[in-house]
Design goal:
The complex is a heterodimer of chains A (about 190) and B (about 200). Chain A has about 190 residues and is mainly alpha-helical. Chain A is built from eleven helices and three strands. A three-stranded antiparallel sheet of chain A has the order 2-1-3. Chain B has about 200 residues and is α/β, with parallel strands linked by helices. Classes of the chains: A mainly alpha (about 190), B alpha/beta (about 200).
Chain lengths: ~190, ~200
């Protein structure tokens, strides 16, 4: 049998081994037989498990998927709580090993962690090098910016360098937003 | 005292305190958009990031500002000068292309230089706002601004590609956004990407 965890006596000494029930032979699982008496250290350890489980439970896998995922992503509780727009105290409660957390909360948290991982693994882009590569295209296109003549007059009067370079013929009279052309009805 | 923590990484922007007072007095949730929002998210105001005015989407009109204590000597249509800074109230609602935003969906609080926060387009919305100029007017400078906002903010905790994917599709900017995303992921955007962006248009 392959234990997946241990219950310790609080000082780190392993007293019980946790074995998945699937590993126990079916005959013993179903019939079982009478439970043997506990020795004093075993009794004390089970009492500790009931009162302070965090101190005596030692398992190989994650006890809490939120905490495990956060730690694997290298995120602090402060950062993740901020990203989730919840308090750090609330996240801390959600991360407690035996806390019952709604599946939707777990899913939302794991999605946020994944999103942050994607954001943090983006390639570094040099903005200045990119703008240089565009050459004079940017300056010429800035002069093509259509604008309300009244706004252009106001900005030019204030010495706005962009408005001063703009072409007079590029006019946008209303302040309406840009929208895709309406689809033609058949 | 600990510093306030802002969502994304905004750079404080100068907004006339008289205007902030007026917004407060009139209980207006004015959202900073356009070139000034680009300045907030790129932290730059040089070259193509220069903008002479502040654009706010709000239910207020320029005339309403008088009730908030603003003198309207230099007002014209949607424009007004406040403490020497041109202010524009572009026509609402808060939207990009065909997508109209629900309240709070596309805005976040950002700091001003005088300390009081204002509401601003979130950076993902600012990218899409710039892309409407690329699709509608084929302005290269707008693509460069969109890319600059994405470069500056897409590594932040709150940046949400999935949100942009959805909104871009509904706004008629799906292809342009996917192109910009790929340009960014290449690690070295350049002239070829710009040329392709200008040809894409709406859709």
């Amino acid at each position: 049998m392959q234990p997946v965890g241990y219950i310790t006596d609080g000082d780190g000494r392993r007293v019980f081994a946790l074995v998945p029930i699937a590993q126990v032979a079916e005959g013993r699982r179903n019939k079982g037989g009478s439970l043997g008496p506990l020795a004093i250290p075993e009794h004390a350890t089970l009492a500790l498990l009931c009162t302070r489980p965090l101190e005596c439970l030692e398992v190989g896998g994650p006890v809490n998927s939120i905490r495990a995922a956060r730690e694997a992503a290298g995120l602090t509780q402060t950062d993740l709580a901020f990203a989730l727009r919840i308090s750090q105290a609330m996240l801390s409660r959600q991360e407690q090993p035996f806390r019952r957390v709604r599946p939707s909360t777990v899913q939302r948290t794991l999605e946020t962690i994944r999103r942050i991982q994607v954001n943090q693994s983006r390639p570094q882009v040099s903005l200045d090098a990119t703008l240089m590569s565009y050459g004079t295209r940017l300056a010429t296109s800035a002069a093509r910016k259509p604008r309300d003549p009244a706004e252009r007059r106001l900005l030019r009067a204030m010495g706005d360098p962009v408005a001063l370079q703009e072409n007079e013929t590029e006019i946008r009279t209303s302040g309406a937003r840009r929208r895709p052309p309406a689809k033609k009805q058949k | 005292m600990t510093k306030p923590r802002w969502h994304y990484a905004p750079t404080p922007i100068a907004v006339p305190s008289a205007l902030l007072d007026a917004f407060e007095a009139l209980q207006a949730e004015a959202v900073l958009v356009g070139g000034s929002a680009v300045q907030v998210w790129t932290g730059r105001s040089d070259g193509i990031f220069t903008t002479g005015d502040l654009d706010f989407i709000t239910h207020l009109t320029v005339k309403d500002l008088a009730k908030g204590g603003i003198r309207l000597d230099a007002a014209s249509g949607r424009h007004v000068l406040v403490d020497g800074i041109p202010i524009e109230f572009p026509a609402g609602p808060l939207a990009v292309g065909d997508h109209v935003f629900a309240k709070g969906e596309a805005s976040v609080l950002v700091p001003t230089r005088e300390g009081r926060p204002i509401v601003c387009f979130r950076p993902e919305a600012s990218v899409l706002d710039r892309l409407t100029w690329v699709a509608g007017d084929r302005l290269e400078v707008a693509y460069a601004q969109a890319l600059a906002v994405a470069v500056s903010q897409s590594g932040q905790l709150h940046w949400d590609d999935a949100w942009v994917d959805t909104v871009a599709g509904q706004a008629g900017l799906g292809k342009l956004w996917q192109h910009l995303k790929a340009d960014l992921a290449s690690g070295s955007p350049g002239l070829a990407g710009l040329n392709k962006a200008i040809k894409i248009g709406w859709g």
